[in-house]
């Protein structure tokens, strides 16, 4: 009927989404300001937070987070988690410990001795 031309993709299936192209462009700018600028306690973004900002900014309601995720995925966003690091982390102190203290610990190795005290040990007595 259509030959190989009929097999060429016509783009993603399903509804186009609730946001227009201009609104999607504006949505791209929102995370750059940080979540605290939108009244959240911390600066991390979640689907629920983005959903709320979309509702407040564009007056468009997504009923669940999966719709927001599909929108973000179509826009090229990926799921990312921040690196978990303590605020008090001192990189200089860590580097010094690795250079000075760790080699001494590593050299000592396991203590000499018989090994297992288990009666089922295969080691001869």
TrEMBL record:
Organism annotation: Thermobifida halotolerans
Protein's UniProt name: Winged helix-turn-helix domain-containing protein
Taxonomic lineage from the root: Bacteria, Bacillati, Actinomycetota, Actinomycetes, Streptosporangiales
Region annotation Disordered: where it falls in the sequence: 104-125
Name of a matching Pfam family: HTH_33
Occurrences of domain Winged helix-turn helix (ranges): 44-100
InterPro entries linked: Winged_HTH_dom
């Amino acid at each position: 009927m259509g030959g190989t031309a009929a097999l060429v993709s016509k783009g993603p299936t399903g509804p186009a989404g609730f946001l227009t192209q201009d609104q999607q462009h504006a949505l791209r700018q929102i995370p750059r300001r940080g979540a605290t600028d939108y009244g959240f306690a911390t600066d991390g973004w979640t689907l629920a937070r983005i959903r709320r900002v979309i509702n407040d900014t564009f007056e468009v309601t997504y009923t669940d987070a999966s719709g927001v995720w599909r929108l973000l995925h179509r826009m090229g966003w990926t799921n990312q988690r921040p690196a978990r690091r303590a605020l008090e982390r001192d990189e200089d102190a860590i580097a010094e410990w690795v250079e000075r203290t760790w080699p001494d610990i590593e050299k000592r190795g396991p203590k000499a001795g018989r090994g297992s005290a288990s009666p089922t040990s295969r080691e001869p007595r």
